[in-house]
């Protein structure tokens, strides 16, 4: 066997190893939907160069398990887009209603806490981490519906969040540009609450805020075709 043939066989085996290793972590949800696949980090963990990792990622992309977005890179694909859409639509309704019921009962301390969290979200935009941004986003919204007197409704909201975590790592991994708009919409929600707006208007604003994220995601997954 020539040296070149041996090198080719070694490269192929490394690519296969990387493929099997990545695929296992995706299908077992250790790498959740939206998880960014940074080639250099994966190569270091596997003890190989980035070449076999890149080849493995391309194979997984062909299988639909990985997607590639410009300015974002490779990431684990959303498992079930239909379920994600229906979960987001449901969450928009129940979270919006819970926020509307809660708004008149929020204290000055609650509002200050929400403002502080949103400021942390704004500060994080410079060195954006989608997963951390999502965690802060949940903290922010949990404050806004904290005082909702309907425990069944808040339970439905938390169930919706749990289902989303099973479906994707972070929507903001797919649409990082949405994060800036989200922070601005949080400011608008806070303004409505602090100025004593009608709870129905607050509910609708919270619902629109959630569906705007869904719309941004769908636009990223199905861009309009060039004519």
TrEMBL record:
InterPro entries: AsnC-type_HTH_dom, GntR_C, TF_FadR/GntR_C, Tscrpt_reg_HTH_GntR, WH-like_DNA-bd_sf, WH_DNA-bd_sf. Signal peptide: none annotated. Keywords: DNA-binding, Transcription, Transcription regulation. The keyword Protease does not apply. Residues 12-79 form the HTH gntR-type domain. Coiled coil: none annotated. GO terms for molecular function: DNA-binding transcription factor activity; sequence-specific DNA binding. This is GntR family transcriptional regulator. It comes from Saccharopolyspora dendranthemae.
């Amino acid at each position: 066997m020539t040296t070149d043939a041996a090198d080719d066989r070694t490269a192929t085996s490394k690519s296969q190893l990387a493929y099997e290793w990545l695929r296992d972590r995706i299908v077992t949800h250790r790498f959740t939907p939206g998880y960014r696949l940074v080639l250099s980090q994966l190569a270091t963990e596997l003890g190989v160069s980035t070449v076999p990792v890149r080849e493995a990622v391309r194979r997984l992309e062909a299988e639909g398990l990985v997607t590639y977005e410009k300015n974002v890179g490779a990431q684990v694909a959303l498992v079930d887009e239909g379920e994600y859409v229906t979960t987001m639509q449901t969450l928009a309704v129940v979270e919006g209603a819970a926020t509307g019921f809660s708004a008149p009962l929020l204290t000055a301390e609650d509002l200050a806490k929400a403002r502080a969290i949103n400021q942390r979200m704004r500060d994080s935009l410079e060195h954006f981490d989608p997963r951390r941004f999502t965690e802060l986003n949940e903290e922010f919204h949990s404050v806004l519906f904290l005082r909702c007197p309907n425990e069944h409704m808040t339970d439905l909201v938390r169930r919706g969040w749990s289902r989303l975590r099973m479906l994707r790592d972070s929507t903001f991994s797919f649409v990082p540009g949405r994060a800036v708009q989200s922070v601005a919409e949080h400011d608008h929600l806070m303004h409505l609450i602090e100025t004593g707006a009608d709870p129905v208007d607050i509910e609708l604003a919270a619902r629109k805020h959630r569906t705007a994220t869904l719309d941004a995601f769908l636009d990223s997954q199905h861009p309009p075709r060039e004519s």
